[in-house]
Amino acid sequence: MKVSHKDRITTPQAVIVLINYILAAGILTLPRTSVEKVKTPDVWLSVIIGGLIAIIAGVIMVKLSQQFPGKTIYQYSQVLLGKWLGGLLSLLIVGHFFTLAAYEVRALAEVTGFFLLEGTPIWAIIMPFMWVGLYLVFDGINPIARLFEIIFPITVVIFLLVTFMGFEIFEIDNVRPVLGLGLIPVLKGIKTTVLAFLGPEIMLLLTAFMQKPNKATKVILVGIAIPMIFYIITVIMVIGALSIDGVVLRTWPTLDLIRSFEIQGLIFERFESLLLVIWIMQIFSTFTITYYAASLGLSQIFKMKMNPFMYGLLFIIYVIALIPKNINDLFKFGDLIGNAALVLFGVLPLLLLLISKVKGGKT
Amino acid sequence: MKRRKIEIKLSQQQQQQTSQIEKQPETAKVPFTGNITIDLDQVRKELGHNSDVGFREFFLGNTGIRASIIFLYGLTDKELINKYILKSLMTNFPERHEHREVSLKEFITNQALTISDLTEVNNLYDTVSKILTGNTALLVDGIQEVIILGTTKEKARNIEEPVSEALVRGPRIGFTETLSDNTAILRQHGCNHNLSIIQIQVGARSKKELVIAFINDIADPALVDEVKERIKTINIDDLPESGYVEQLIEDNYLSPFPQVQNTERPDRVFSALMEGKIAILLDGSPFALIVPVTFSMLLQSPEDYYERWIPGSLIRLLRFLAAILSLFAPSMYIAFISFHPGLIPTKLALSIISSREGVPFPALIEALIMEISIEILREAGLRLPKPIGPAMGIVGGLIIGEAAVQAGIISPIMVIVVSITAISSFAIPQYSAGITLRILRFVAMFCAAVFGLYGIILFFLLLCSHLVKLKSFGVPYVSPAVPYRISDWKDFILRMPLFMMKRRPKMLHTRDSNRKG
Amino acid sequence: MKRRNFFWLLKCSLVLLLLLQLTGCWSSKEIEELGLVAGTALDLEKKADLSEEVEGHEERYPNRVMITITNQLITSQTTESGKKTGAPQQKSFKNVSETGDSILPVLRKMILKIDKRAFAQHSKVIVIGEDLTRTLNLQQILDFFLREQEMRLSGQILIAKNNAKKTLESQETSVIPAFHLFQITKSQERTTKILPPLSLAKVMGKLHSGSSFLVQTVVSEKGEVKFAGAAVIKGKTKKLLGFLNEKELEGIVWLTGKGKGGVVKSFDKATSQPIIYEIKSMKSKIQPRIVNNNISFDVKIESEGSIAEHWVPSGKPFENEFLKKAEKTTEKEVESLVKNVLVKTQQNYRVDVAGFGNRLRIEYPRVWEKVKQDWDHTFSKIPIKYNVNLTVKDYGTSGSN
After folding, report:
1. Which end of chain A is more exposed for a tag (fewer CB within 10 A), N or C?
2. What class has domain C249-394?
3. Residue that finishes a domain, picked among B457, B476, B495
């Protein structure tokens, strides 16, 4: 069951898949969650450190995957840990992917229901979204990667356009001083910012699909650096406009940044619709890639065709997405996924890498 | 998967063909006897009841050998038959040919007949089909084979400027209904010894000639094979137009997008050939097909290359904008008016509010009324005789629109939106692509009416999901946009200066990737 | 395979379409059925008229403050009548008022009065009456507006002297007063007598940080609405402390260096004729100093400008001496403006509204952490030195008068 040649993706495609996976629900809330912890304007430093940590974790995962060319974690974990333990680990990873998918879908429903479609029931927002995702995922990784390639430039252009329009209300005093209270507050925020970089784990699968797997480290570097730039711009612009004290009060601070100014004389005076457009696209890409990763996992663990799992997972994701009762539950749910991911992808890959080195040394 | 499908189709096809032949044993490959009386009777039985079939029996010169020609009135060139066939066989035929060292057949074919197009067949089935395409069959007593003489007189119209693709600058020449003329135009246009023109016969009952044209040392051989294979799978009675071919060889019949490009312009065909694409021409149709096709090609016009690169690029950008407008303008309007009035500028909101006062319908119904009436208007304009067409447009567009606004049924802003949409869709150079966008526009409108902006985003994502899956003869439909191939982007949204386009599109896997040298 | 997929999709979309038929379009709201809220005015209701308003359950909380909310609505009727020429002129807006003890219930009460759904996304200003801000915490007043997603954060906050409702009135029929106010809030370019605009987005940070701040003030006199001075909101109580008049406001603008244009009028000593200095650029640097745990501030104000008008008969702008003299008198004037406002804020109001605290936070974050709890009090005793330096660059096209 090696990955067939048809399903190979190019290196830029891998980079873009990673970027689109990382950029998701977090970009709307990151300024608030991180400022809550850091409490000084140095949040952007936390973001950088968080990104660096994510890069290290990503490189470990890539090194691990490169030991088994053409195989995904679901396949080589069984080689490394034995059938049962490996299977269990794979199931955990699958679980991570589809709960993350459910979380993203729910976050989408919350934001869309609040800002765009007041009064539309959640199921009606979620269901067509998931169907479109299912249609895309059917034909494997290649269409997914290509769709991401369409979404990505749109995201970059609109994001830069919209955030830089916010310069009108940007106040440099709000982001000063740098390191006024030392490094300690910055360190407090790192856990939050690392969670914003949830995504390098996709390389555990993606490396197997790459045409040139030896470039996977580069993919990690670029693929995390670009979201890092996005995050830094977001955090600085939002804090600069709303100030530290304003940010902590807002549920979706990034959207509030865009809602805080109007530019007259253009076709659009208000730009939150544009931001929501790219945000929904980003959620869609995160949803599809996690959904695909979960179905791929199940099909490889049970060595069966993928389609039945896709239908099944669609239902499971839908049910999980409806579990959180309110928005606080949703944020807690997100933290839960993040904490689980820290263990699952922060510690375990290193262990696996060690095991594979030891085993490799023996034979 | 696709390959397998084709194989299955192919084997079915072969089975069908063989069974067809088994059904008609008498006309099938029964060889002629060589006895002219018997053979002629056979042909008569098959064709004799037709009033337009002529049988002319005669003797070869003074030798007393019986011979006969069979031909169709009207389709054959009578002058050719009289001057070069009958005259050379009857009056100029030497009395005693036996003294020569060649057989009678060889003598006739090699020395007597002064005619260029000459083949031999030996059974009734082939003979009849050749006669029906305008050839003349020559039966000679004692010769088993039938000599087929190319005497087809083409019923051709003059070469005119193509109606469907008008250009300001560019050759004023278009394909006609005659295949041989079309191939001749290509040859003349190309002046390239590597231009391959391969003929295939299609159609189970009415035989049509079909030509695949490509440049030998550029086109990807795998692509050529693929095209040939797909054309072989065509199994249909009759192909009146190249649109039939298009529909029978396309990749995905469910897609709203055209996967084969059609054109009346030889210059367009030839530049496609030079990029490594393949053209398919069918006898009886002035529309040549070009495969593979990508979405961006549908928004290109040959003029982009004839103009200098700056206007060429800008006009192309304009067309992309027009495509986006014609697809999304009405749905955006619906979404903003009935879902997100807070997202439009305040002053615009005020003027829309005042213009919509008293309009009895919600935005979707209003838009549907206008869009559908404009579609009807357009369709009616096509059917009407040419002098009335524009008048119709004026009546429909101006008078009805104005009256509807006056009556308060439609808001003036909606009229503006709908007209912008209509005008934008006219700016798309390919008619078939324009139709696609028109269909999808309605889908987008419904999505917008249900979910507002969110619906439009979902529609866009669905559309893109479909597009990234779609392939035209193995080439991704959305290339060169994705997967990223920077070198192909020189001729994508912008048309870079010619000297920069040194390479052919990579997506076509051409044999020779350099345009120069 | 492909065929099956398609029919599956087709079925799905059919089901979807049917579902949509059943449920309708949940969130759709046609634009002409909305009444756009252009601005909102909040006033304290005088107790006298209250008795009839009080309903059953409100009696249990007898001491509740009653608020009157006035929404300025623009509906399809008002816009159309405003546009048609010849027809009897009618106002292009409609003010609707309602009273209650919290914001949303009151707004909902308005539904009973108007046929359109009030839609606040185009709301430009919130005007709060003087009395209301004196009695109620600004955070509480604005809580609804900061919470409601329909309120855009780009809306401006204004405080009205006397009555807020009156500021949304206008004699002219074609003007929408709320938009009128909104445009004026941004006229900082050409005068120093107005503050930089304060939007909802900015106010929430200020409210949460607990620092004192200024709000633009409007006053309605004889049917005319004009901007006058600024309202001082105390950071601790978040209530209105008092007003700064126009002179004091000018002092604040000079102190903060936020002005973008305007004029300074000073009098020539010898002739007591006015010299008008037009500001081209303005810069101020507030430098905190800490010596032996004692905080002090140095303010350095620099400006470039031109002489726009001078009535001094002997003044010859071609001579540098005259320019120097003009500079000096103008500097004196600015110094007195600054001094004036410092006295007022440090001694009368005892609040920091010019951003001294913010500078301290940036330059000495650790000191700030210690003093920020009681900053307004600390500030009132801090010595402040200031130094004004003006440069006259040109004198227009005319040399002498």
Report:
1. C
2. alpha beta
3. B476
Residues from B contacting A (CB-CB < 8 Å) are: 339-340, 342-346, 451-454, 457-458, 461-462, 464-466, 468-469, 476, 478, 481-484
Q: What is the pLDDT of residues C191-223, one digit of tens each?
A: 778 888 888 888 888 888 888 888 888 888 877
Q: How many domains does chain B have?
A: 3
> Residue ranges of chain C with pLDDT lower than 70?
1-6, 9, 16-26, 47-64, 79-90, 313-318, 396-401
What is the number of CB-based contacts under 8 A between chain A and chain B? 81
Kindly state whether residue A228 falls inside one of the protein's structural domains.
Answer: yes
pLDDT tens, position by position, A119-143: 888 888 898 899 999 999 988 888 9
pTM, entire model:
0.87
Instruction: Name the closest residue on chain A to residue C156, using Cα atoms.
Output: A260
Q: Which residues of chain C does A114 touch, with a Cβ-Cβ cutoff of 8 Å?
A: 149
Is residue B5 a part of any domain in this protein? no
Total domains present in chain A: 1
C-alpha distances in Å from residue A200, one per residue of A16, A28, A194, A225, C73: 12, 20, 11, 12, 51
Contact A135 B342 (CB under 8 A): no
Please provide residue B491's backbone torsions phi and psi, each rounded to the nearest 5 degrees.
-130, 55
State the Cα–Cα distance between residues C382 and C348, nearest whole angstrom.
14
Domain presence at residue B169: no
Q: Tokens representing B463? A: 């559309």
* pLDDT tens figures, C87-124: 445 677 888 888 887 788 888 888 788 878 888 888 88
Among B461, B478, B483, the residue with its CB nearest the CB of A132 is: B461
Parent domain of A142: 5-339
Measured in angstroms, the CA of A326 and the nearest CA of chain B are apart by 21
Residue B426 lies in a domain: yes
- The larger pLDDT score, comparing residue A4 to residue C284, is at C284
Q: Is residue B484 part of a domain?
A: no
Residue C2 to residue B354, Cβ atoms within 8 A: no
- Asked if B149 and B112 touch (Cβ cutoff 8 Å), the reply is no
* Parent domain of B86: 24-149
Residue of B nearest to A264 (CA): B345
Chain length of chain C: 401
**How many Cα neighbours within 13 Å face the side chain of A251?**
14
Token pair in block for residue C64: 């509740």
- Measured CA to CA, the distance from residue B17 to residue B10 in angstroms comes to 10
Task: Assess A265–C contact: CB distance below 8 Å, yes or no.
Answer: no
| pLDDT number for residue A95 | 92
